[in-house]
Specification:
CATH class of one domain: Alpha Beta
Number of helices: 16
Oligomer: single chain
CATH topology of one domain: Rossmann fold
Number of strands: 15
């Protein structure tokens, strides 16, 4: 039996879909059943409740498991929760743990999450279980974070100077993980995973421009300005500090090396950024849909319908509005009928008072279902009251994020 942790996250969810499509029976570890309705509907997928931050909840989930995929969010608790899981898995008799790690784990790294990944890898190697480390580069959907500035100004703001980075498609990571979990010969191996090319941010902007049909230009941002913009957009200080450390390492070229491992393991070239952008861009997807079928490895979110709501708050309403937003998202996440079919997040522009709400829906029926919910009616009424001027709904013709990221 295979157990997948981080099951409702970007990587875990895609891995579970791919394993299910292969006819593999597995368990998905989740903290809330309400967030796992989509997963539980997949053939061969059993949902189990457990929390890696609460080790006492893990033994039941690990019963009869012989292989496990270890994934969790990059947050202050990552070292603790993954260490909890390793200890519980070893005690439960798990034979092989595959860890999704960072591309540059190092106990002495200036980047805090690289240090954590390095320590977790060390603990897994000492656990007595077989291990495989999947050291993934930057996830291609990371550029979704730039949606507000791209929409508002046609600009891609990042503190990257002229450095290059070899990003990887989440679908490729999942396919590698599925292969490692279902075949032998990967025990004790370390696999660096990247896409087929290292790109500068100028090149990324050019490729996004080609995919969207809109002119997008890269603007190098001084590190301090980038951090200030993140803090003003309500990024937690801990994460803002971590991102500053990460980009400092990237500017040194630490993520510029292209790895051949995906090609070797899968027998095909990794997904290019051009291909990712084409499928992740609604306008481009619609244009290409007449010529070829969508790649089944693509996640559900990349085939969703997208829209933006842009507005600015009246003076003095930010904290009140933040609480209302959290309440709405909580209600949305706890609605089983909508789980996996719609996603929503709020973002603020780097400059000025504009806010953007980015939403993605699987189909027209999902939108109708959402509109019928009382919490959505209440939310839209409050948005109208909070907005300073007209609330504008914009069609989105660029890459759009559909899930909070865990990541680098």
């Amino acid at each position: 039996m295979i157990l997948v942790t981080g099951a409702t996250g970007l990587n875990g969810r895609e891995l579970i879909r791919q394993l299910s499509a292969r006819g593999i029976a597995l368990r998905a570890l989740v903290r809330s059943v309400a967030k796992a309705a989509e997963l539980s509907s997949l053939p061969g997928v059993g949902v189990v409740i457990g929390d890696m931050a609460r080790p006492e909840t893990l033994p039941a989930a690990l019963r009869d498991v012989d292989r496990a995929m270890l994934i969790s969010s990059s947050d202050p608790a990552m070292l603790e929760v993954q260490s909890n899981f390793i200890a519980a898995a070893a005690k439960a008799g798990v034979k092989h743990v595959v860890k999704l790690s960072g591309i540059m784990p190092d106990l002495d790294s200036p980047f805090r999450f690289a240090r954590m990944h390095g320590e977790i890898e060390k603990r897994l190697e000492a656990s007595g279980m077989a291990y495989t480390h999947l050291r993934a580069g930057e996830f291609m959907p990371a550029y979704f974070r730039q949606v507000p500035s791209i929409v508002a100004k046609g600009l891609l703001f990042l503190p990257m100077e002229n450095a290059k980075i070899a990003s990887i498609d989440v679908g490729d990571i999942a396919e590698v993980a599925a292969t490692v979990l279902t075949s032998s010969g990967h025990e004790g191996k370390i696999y660096p995973l990247t896409g087929p090319e290292a790109l500068s941010m100028v090149q990324v902007a050019e490729k996004l421009s080609a995919a969207t049909g809109n002119s997008i230009r890269y603007v190098n941002v001084p590190p301090d300005d980038a951090k200030k913009a993140q803090l003003s957009a309500d990024v937690p200080p801990y994460l803002a500090d971590a991102l500053a450390e990460l980009f400092a390492e990237r500017r040194k070229g630490k993520e510029a090396q292209v790895s051949p491992i995906v090609q070797t393991l899968l027998g095909r070239r990794p997904t290019s950024f051009d291909e990712f952008a084409a499928f992740a861009t609604p306008r481009s997807f619609a244009a290409n849909n007449r010529r070829r079928e969508p790649d089944p490895r693509r996640t559900l979110e990349q085939n969703m319908k997208y829209f933006l709501i842009r507005y600015r708050l009246k003076d003095g309403l930010d904290e009140q509005r933040r609480r209302e937003m959290l309440s709405f998202i909580s209600a949305l996440n706890d609605e089983p009928a909508l789980s996996g079919r719609i996603s929503y997040r709020c973002m603020k522009t780097r400059e000025g008072p504009d806010y953007y709400h980015l939403a993605a829906a699987a189909d027209d029926q999902t939108v109708q279902d959402l509109q019928s919910r009382e919490f959505f009616t209440r939310y839209t009424e409050q948005t109208d009251l909070a907005a300073d001027g007209e609330v504008e709904v914009l069609p989105l013709e660029i890459i759009a994020e559909t899930k909070p990221l865990a990541h680098a």
